[in-house]
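For the sake of transparency, this paper describes our internal protein records without simplification. The tokens are whole numbers drawn from a learned vocabulary of local backbone shapes. One such record is reproduced below, unchanged from the form in which we store it.

. . .
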Amino acid sequence: MEDRLQIVRDYIHGHLGNVTVADDEDLFKGGYLNSLFAVQIVVWLEKRFGIAVRGSDLTLDNFRSIKDIAAFVDDYFTLIG
């Protein structure tokens, strides 16, 4: 199984110009994530992992940190079996 946390971490760090952000750091409070980047992450998640992000999935809890984003993807695959 691929390490989704590492994949998400690499994407976020790459987008931030290889700035290192702790996996559990709040991306919104730290100023790393704005609405445009949030949309880019959603589109990237859908393409990279072949998932469908629905309106009800778009909560701060799912996108607050690198760890939360990876957990959201993991939960998606757990739900579909």
Notes: The two ends are 14 Å apart (CA to CA). Helices lie at 4-15, 35-49, 60-63, 66-80.
